[in-house]
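Sharing a chain and its predicted structure for anyone who wants a worked example. Both blocks are below, sequence first, tokens second.
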Amino acid sequence: NADLMTDYALKMADAIERHTVLDDVHKPWARTHQMYQTLGPVLATHDVFICPTNNAPSVKADHDPWDQNYTVNGKKADPEFGWVMTHQFNMLHNCPVLSLPTGHAVSGVPTGMQIVARTWDDARVFKAGLAYEEAVGGWYTAKGKRPVL
């Protein structure tokens, strides 16, 4: 019943109805290939790639993902994905990614970063994460509860 659905759910249902099977299969693979063509050379010459999990400390609870006037730090951004920086690496499923807490924004919301490594190099993100944890004083104290690196 549409009366019980949020505006977001109604707009998403409408968008899904307009997609074809070809859109669902081909376009994401083409985009993923394009993304890896950009990130691959960076990872080939660096141990890891580090970036924030979000490019803004917080997004309002009533944020409209179709608001074409959405901005981040005064610059126009994609209203649905223009603020989150984790979905790119979900699409690049071959590259291991580790998200870590980094503290809190001035507003008090938690912040984080992600460490990305070369294709299939899972150990590298864990080692880099451990090095970061040790450098900032650590936050994980349960000895024997994590893999040996």
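Comments welcome. Residues 2-135 form one domain.
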